[in-house]
Amino acid sequence: MSESMQGLHRTHRCTEVSNANIGEKVTVMGWVQKRRNLGSLIFIDLRDRSGILQLVFDEPKVGSEGFAKAGTLRSEFVIAVEGTVQKRSAAVNENLKTGDIEVIAESIRILSESQTPPFQIEENSQTKDEIRLKYRYLDLRRPDIQRNLMLRSKVAYLMRDFMAKEGFLEIETPILCKSTPEGARDYLVPSRIHPGSFYALPQSPQLFKQLLMASGYDRYFQIAKCFRDEDLRADRQPEFTQADMELSFVDIDDVLDVNERLLKYIFKEAIGVDVELPLKRMPWQEAMDRFGSDKPDTRFGMELKDVSDIVKDCGFGVFTSALEQGGSVRGINAEGQGAMPRKKIDKLVEFAKGYGAKGLAYLSVQEDGSYKSSFAKFMTEEELKNLVAAMDGKPGDLLLFAADKNKIVWNVLGALRLEIAKELDLLDPNQYNFLWITEFPLLEWSDEENRYMAMHHPFTMPMEEDWDKIDTDPGAVRAKAYDIVLNGTELGGGSVRIHQSDIQEKMFEVLGFTKERAHEQFGFLLDAFSYGVPPHAGLAYGLDRLVMHMVHADSIRDVIAFPKVKDASDLMSNAPDIVDEKQLEELCIKVDEKEVEEKEAEEAAEK
Amino acid sequence: MSESMQGLHRTHRCTEVSNANIGEKVTVMGWVQKRRNLGSLIFIDLRDRSGILQLVFDEPKVGSEGFAKAGTLRSEFVIAVEGTVQKRSAAVNENLKTGDIEVIAESIRILSESQTPPFQIEENSQTKDEIRLKYRYLDLRRPDIQRNLMLRSKVAYLMRDFMAKEGFLEIETPILCKSTPEGARDYLVPSRIHPGSFYALPQSPQLFKQLLMASGYDRYFQIAKCFRDEDLRADRQPEFTQADMELSFVDIDDVLDVNERLLKYIFKEAIGVDVELPLKRMPWQEAMDRFGSDKPDTRFGMELKDVSDIVKDCGFGVFTSALEQGGSVRGINAEGQGAMPRKKIDKLVEFAKGYGAKGLAYLSVQEDGSYKSSFAKFMTEEELKNLVAAMDGKPGDLLLFAADKNKIVWNVLGALRLEIAKELDLLDPNQYNFLWITEFPLLEWSDEENRYMAMHHPFTMPMEEDWDKIDTDPGAVRAKAYDIVLNGTELGGGSVRIHQSDIQEKMFEVLGFTKERAHEQFGFLLDAFSYGVPPHAGLAYGLDRLVMHMVHADSIRDVIAFPKVKDASDLMSNAPDIVDEKQLEELCIKVDEKEVEEKEAEEAAEK
């Protein structure tokens, strides 16, 4: 049975009813969270997106038909109830916003019945992910997910509000674009009208937003869908949302300034967190040296120390050979962890190997001042003493060292530092450490390609003061690029772009692009730039990730209404799926069964 | 030569400088619109998105180097100029916001040079569309296009602002979806991880927004990209933007109310037009009878009149046979057009044929009261007199009649009415006639499919008072569907949805869906509805079209930053395009060359 609501008008959402309404008639509608029969009364917890309200059915008040209806109610039935608000007769429920009131039902309609759901609608459900995502429409009823999506909506609104007031225009860029060979893998869309040709879904609106600057739009903003056909990690989705901006006639400080005020605004308005401005800035080199990471979590210390100078002449071959090969020896001090059992240290060694280390050298300073160490035997007392002193090692401390190429040493110790902090519970979720990382290297050497690659992209502006090194020492040229980091997560990043054709040409040369290749890949952008382009700069946030951190969600899927799982499929709608042969015919494409078989065979072999 | 802007800071956009700044130093940046050398002075019109500002270069003030630089400036060079604001020395330019001032340059940097553009950057360019779209980044510099996109940005912002304040949540729905066999043609996206399977780009977020209602989100809003792989008409784009909403626990009046207030708000705030509420409502049947259209332009009269009763016994076979076949005879009175020359009338007849008419009967009432007519000879004086009287025909009027099935008669006269109004210039662009069309038929008979089809979609709620006719006279059942019409254009539409499983089942039965087929197509929505679904309703606007009408653009392309042309290609980026063989291999698809050849042969044959 399902009744119409014709003639009824909802007066309040559940928690919009309060003790200010006592004695008033209200009409509320929602889902049955729970029914309890207590003596001659029936109690219903009614749920909507605002929360829970208690309804009381008393036969003399609601009539025998209404009372009978109330008796049939089960979880997730949708009902409309008219009644009068009164002070709660039983004990006040402190956990509910409406815990001091209840509505005495005078009439009820059952708008929709419900089967028994496959899992209970409740916060912090322990239901398996696959079930939750198959029944996503039920999972989405959970109050915690609802709060996440409501906050996401609010964050997007606050961003737009702020940006509009700062003179940014929201301009939509296309989804059906042209495939660009560089970068991540594109999703392709076959064209029916041009058989054999394909569109690509955009990996970001980068080229379009730079074009808009060349076209004089001055300040652009967009909350834009982006697509990457990559193998998914836990925090990745094949389609994701970017809060994207670009500004003309600015330099780096203008971009950072507007973004700092944006962040302050949304953190205050959305989650009540005060962000102190200006945000700290740290050059990339310092971040790597101190934290082994270009997105350091600065909520705790345990900083890296470079002890290369101290160990350079010692007898421990692991250290000295790393130095001879141009690497470094660095360590962290896990204070107070000197008594860590060998088994646990071994686990850390394994963890370090997962990040590319060949091993991990350790030294624990015993309470009596003696050392327990994997390498002490290779070093003199004096050397050990100097090393411990350099690390600020005190009795009870555990010192951990990595020796390798800089990149590996940073990676290993950066990860280890975080891992230990997690184990020791040093990460306060209510502390918000924002940090700009600046002065990134412009170029990154690729052994694979045997050339320099752009660390951000080929349009990133070098720092004026380094530009004279572009021929002699290209790796030392820093870029006007910046990332915004919160508690060890990169929320977004961007750069000042090159607007001068001579610098751009030189960049392409350094990157090993011929003029032809540059034109093939970026033709229309270079063309546009030849007709007068303003200095411009931009930044993009990963919106999913930003919201995920604001609500402290465990998974990015908890802030996306209809997410995909690791194999990029949607378990609810069963997308992707096979389609009608006729659809493929119209597109003039065929599934290459031979290729499919080969691929499947390969995958089977991998398992 | 292109200089850096390091150390400079823009103080104003061009038209932010005003006579309030006289005597002040300013730094402005923008594009050179025009250079004039006048005596010993150089005048530059500087352009940015805000408008034009006049700069004056006087060698003693700007120095010889600066003056020399100014002498090299050409159209579209990007410059930064510091100078002092003064009252304009020459005559005030009334056409410019800054027409009473000028900036006396004290220094200049050339930030970027420009090639000679292929066309002048100016309003109402007469440049061919293909050139404009190939150089879209230049076309986008035109002040009229910039105003359009700025207004579009504002409209989107106002909508979001209004909706947020009304308790709507903006929730993003996926772009990578599942293909649904019904409806328009889907764009497909091959899956790499699931070779042989495809995603589809959404034609609208319809299913997702209904799911969100089932999930308790209560009020949903989204400005969403939608995709249809159809052959394009002038006002269609393969990807278009929908302002989409859905509301729970509402009936039709709630939806109309919130949308009326939304429209009033955006028309007032964006273009200063006062919309009087409540908007007029007209049942579909009345719209067809009076205007021959379900999106009538009510800015002028010339309404249709049904004269079937008057001509039913006359001697004109065209009229009587149409009536015998269940059709009707209807006419319009083109007042004052009685003297229209025969040649022009013949053109109208041809026009009518384009809309499916077999012909068009006409009668002009001469100034002396006599008739000139294509059919007078078949009718008695009395019959003619009655007919003219029924049409309110006065001397000097032209009466035009169509006789056919109702659908054709409406189509023909509806189109003819508009055509004549255009010719007679009866359409006032500054009048905004909003109108709700309501009570659409629930079903539409399809000769092709030999069954009833849903006029909106299978989830549209029938009107309670008609539901008992669903078996005996299904064509007479009206729906709780509504369109919002402005000056003859459908801006948007929607419906109350069915939330009762018994009504939904009956609908599928009437539509000839087996349970299996219904489940196959709408499985997860029906599943979701079996767990408790609230009454809900929604509406969607075509945002491109809405903005197009607000700015009186001739083409939908003038309100989209990077539009596609009729063959769904982007002339600037050259999308779609061929891709690397490797990309197709990874997706396990092949272009079916045989199919391509056949298709090309077919197309060649058509030409």
UniProtKB/TrEMBL annotation, chains A, B:
KW Aminoacyl-tRNA synthetase (keyword) present: yes
Annotated catalysed reactions: tRNA(Asp) + L-aspartate + ATP = L-aspartyl-tRNA(Asp) + AMP + diphosphate
Enzyme class (EC, first level): ligase
Keywords carried by this UniProt record: Aminoacyl-tRNA synthetase, ATP-binding, Cytoplasm, Ligase, Nucleotide-binding, Protein biosynthesis
Keyword rRNA processing among record annotations: no
Annotated ranges, domain Aminoacyl-transfer RNA synthetases class-II family profile: 149-563
Binding site for L-aspartate: 182, 228, 456, 497
Residue ranges, annotated region (Aspartate): 206-209
Biological process per Gene Ontology, one example term: aspartyl-tRNA aminoacylation
EC number: 6.1.1.12
Subcellular location: Cytoplasm
Gene3D superfamilies (alphabetical): Bira Bifunctional Protein, Domain 2, GAD-like domain, Nucleic acid-binding proteins
An annotated GO cellular component: cytoplasm
Family: Belongs to the class-II aminoacyl-tRNA synthetase family. Type 1 subfamily.
Quaternary assembly: Homodimer.
Cited function: Catalyzes the attachment of L-aspartate to tRNA(Asp) in a two-step reaction: L-aspartate is first activated by ATP to form Asp-AMP and then transferred to the acceptor end of tRNA(Asp).
Protein name, UniProt field: Aspartate--tRNA ligase
Organism in which the protein naturally occurs: Roseburia amylophila
